[in-house]
Amino acid sequence: MTAIDKVTRDLWQVIAAIDETPPGIVQVTLLLDQQLAFTRDAALRPVVWRRNGEQIGDVVDFEAIGERLPVIEGYGYIWTSFGNPPAELFPIPEYAEADRKNMSCGSIGLHVSAPRAVENFLDMGHFPYVHTDILGAEPHTEVKEYDVEVSEERDEVLATRCRFFQPRAALSATEGQEVEYVYRVPHPFCSVLYKSCPEDDTRRDVIAIFLQPMTEERCRAHLLQSMVDSVSTITELRRFQQTIFGQDKPILENQYPKRLPLDPRSETPIRADKSAIAYRRWLSQKGITYGVIPQAG
Amino acid sequence: MTTLYDFELSGNCYKLRLLMSILRVPYDVVPVDFYPGRQHKADWFLKLNPFGQLPVLEDDGLVLRDSGAILAYLARKYDPSGLWFPTDPATLADVLKWHAVADDITATSSAARLNLGMFYDFDLEKVQQGAHRIFRIMDEHLWFGEQQGRDWLCAPAHPTTADIACFPYVMLSEEGGISRQDYPAIRRWTDRVRRVPGFVVMSGIFPAGRAAE
C-alpha cells in the first residue's frame, strides 16, 4: 500500500456532503487508499470508521462500530482524519453570512490526483478554450499579470489581482465583464476562489473545491458554492457549476502523469502559471508526497 | 410550447438538446437536479414520469418520456424532410434496432460513467466489458460501411435518429474508463456526427476539428 506522508495523515480530509448523508444508513467511500464507512447518528452528528464488510445502504449498528475516526463538520461537509488533525478547519468567513446561498454541487469522481485538480482550479489560461462563452472567449485569452504570495501567518498560497474577461461570469451575469478573482489554497487539497459578484459589486461570490484523495491517482471533488444571488434557485446554481466542472473533467483526466510533478524542471511553466509554481513549491516544502511526484534528492 | 426537463450532465437529455438544435426547435428548460439532489425521484417528477427517469419532454400538452421515443417524435413532428426518422419499413426497423443498441450503451457505458463519476453502485468491470463488446461490433459495422460508402449507422446516405441516440454515451465513454483507442471507425463516425450542421456540445463533449480536405 502507498505510504501516506505525515502531513497528509494529520490533515482534515473531506469525505461527503452532510445533507447527502442519511442518518442511520451506511455510506462507504475511499480515502487515502483506505475503505471508510460513515453515517450520521440520531443527533445528526457524523460518525466515521474503518469499513469492515459493511455495504452501502445497510442499517448502521452503532454498538458494533469499533474505533471511530476524528470528525469535524465544516462548510456543509464531513471531514475526518487518520492522524492528529488541527483543532479547526481553515476559515471561510463568508460562508456564515446570513443572506448567502450555500450549497454543495455534487461530489464528482476524477481520474487524476487531488493536487492536479487543485492546480487546474487555479488556472485561468484554459477559460476561453474549455469554458468557451461562459468563463472566457477568444480573442480575450490573455492572462494578465497577477500577484502570488505564500502567507506565512496563515500557511496558505494566495493569488490576488487576477483579472479575466468573462462572457458569463456567473448565472446572475447578464453581460460580459472583466472579472477579478482571488484564489486561496488554505489546505494542500483544497482551494477557495472569490470572484466579483454580478449582483452586488461590493461583495464577492465564493466557490471552493475540496478534493478527497481516494488514491494517488483518483480523487473525489466536492464543490461548494456560497453565492450572493437573490434570484436563482439552488438547482439552477448547481447546474451552472456542474456545467463548468463537466467541461473540466475530460481535460483533467487526460493530464499525464496523473500525479503532480514537483520538480520544477519536469514541466514547462509559463508566466500565467505563477500560482501553480507557488503551489508546487509550497507542497514540496511541506513534505507532501501523496498524489505528487516528489522532487528527486 | 416545448419544455425539456433536463440535467446538463445527462447524455440522454443531451440527445434531445442535440436533435432540437439540429432541427431548430425552440424550447424551454426546466432543470432537474439529478445529482446530488435526486429530483428525478421526487414526487413532482414522478407525476410526470412514474419510472423516475430523465428526460421528459412536454410538447403542446403531451408529456413524453424515453429519449429514443422522444427522438422519433421530434423527428416526425419537426423535420419536414422526413430524413431523420424515415418510415419506409426496412429503414424504420434499422433505426429502431440502433435505438435499442443505444439503450444497451446506456446500460453499460453510461453506467460505468455513473459509477466512477457519481458513485452509483454498479459492477464496474462488467459494465465496462459490456460497453467494449458493443463498441467492437459498432466499429466493425462502421468500418464495413465506410468500405461501401456508408457514413452512418443506418443505410441511408444521411444521419438518422439512430446516430443521435448512440452518440452521447459513446463520446462520454472515457469518463467511464472505456477507451476508444481501439475503435478507429467509431472515432471517425463521432467526428462526422460533430460536423452535422446545428451540432451543439454538452459538458464533456468538445467540437470536432475541421475535416481534412
What does this protein structure show overall?
Chain A: GO terms for molecular function: oxidoreductase activity. Chain A: It holds the Pfam family VanA_C. Chain A: It comes from Devosia limi DSM 17137. Chain A: InterPro entries: Cholesterol_7-desaturase, VanA_C_cat. The complex is a heterodimer of chains A (297) and B (213). Chain A folds into two domains: 6-80, N-terminal domain of TfIIb (Single Sheet); 94-293, Naphthalene 1,2-dioxygenase Alpha Subunit, Chain A, domain 1. Chain A has helices at 6-10, 114-122, 127-130, 234-253, 274-286, and strands at 13-17, 27-31, 34-40, 46-50, 71-74, 77-80, 101-110, 147-151, 156-166, 177-187, 190-197, 200-213, 219-227, 260-261, 292-293. With 297 residues, chain A is an alpha+beta fold. The two termini of chain A are 23 Å apart. Chain A is built from five helices and 15 strands. The longest helix of chain B is centred in the middle third of the chain and has 30 residues, at 89-118. Chain B is globular and about 50 Å long. Chain B has 213 residues and is an alpha+beta fold. The mean pLDDT of chain B is 97. Chain B contains seven helices and four strands. The interface between A and B is medium-sized, with 26 and 22 residues.
